[in-house]
Amino acid sequence: MFPGEIDVLPATYLDQLGTIFARFAPRDSGNVSYGVEFGGTRYFVKTAGDPAATEPYLGFDDRVDLLRNAVELARSVNHPVLPTLHAVIESPAGPLLVYDWRDGDLLGDPVTRERFQALPTAEILAALATIYDLHAALDALGWVECDFYDSALLYDFQTRGLTVFDLDTYHRGPHHNTMGEMFGSSRFMAPEQHVLGAPLDTRTNAYVMARVALVFLPEPPPALHAVLLEATTTRFPSYQAFYDAWLTASSTIAE
């Protein structure tokens, strides 16, 4: 359905393909993404943006590298919370990543986040369960969290469906912090994401996911709060150890 390569710029191709009904161009990232309707189906298309843009923190080549990393991640794991990657189209301005379109409100918006935090605890826990299950799959494949925060989450308040996206910066395998202060929101970041040369690994995944619950769940049940406290103080040796403890604590609540 989609070509492997085009010889025009992404916006030109998408305009010819169907109807562009949304455009997203955050100045700091340099990426430009589109909502496109074609053949009665909606798609989310992400590109590296303008090759000549000088405002973004990352140059064009680095943005392209991150998109190719996103392709590797998408092809390594199949999970319902992740939009399906349908195609990668090469263009003179880098690849176009064609995903499912997902409805929902961005939890990075303060009003939306407060609305989500006000939901019944059971509904928030159900959403967290999908995030944690996804990261169990990613962790098992060696992916290490980078730059995960509330703006990587969409929540559909009608269907109670959660979508996770924009995991382009995740790293395959343990590595070290080469930036010092890494990308991301300090509300979600692990201590090692602030320290140049610090190791980043499965323990980082555990810490960040614990922070996700502490941000979104204002009053976690005591059994879960104990797990989150351990994850962010003495810390678990791995994401799987954190996840196992979370599941055990969750089962006691269900009873």
TrEMBL record:
Keywords: Kinase, Serine/threonine-protein kinase, Transferase. GO terms for molecular function: protein serine/threonine kinase activity. Gene3D superfamilies: Transferase(Phosphotransferase) domain 1 (1.10.510.10). This is Serine/threonine protein kinase. It comes from Kribbella speibonae.
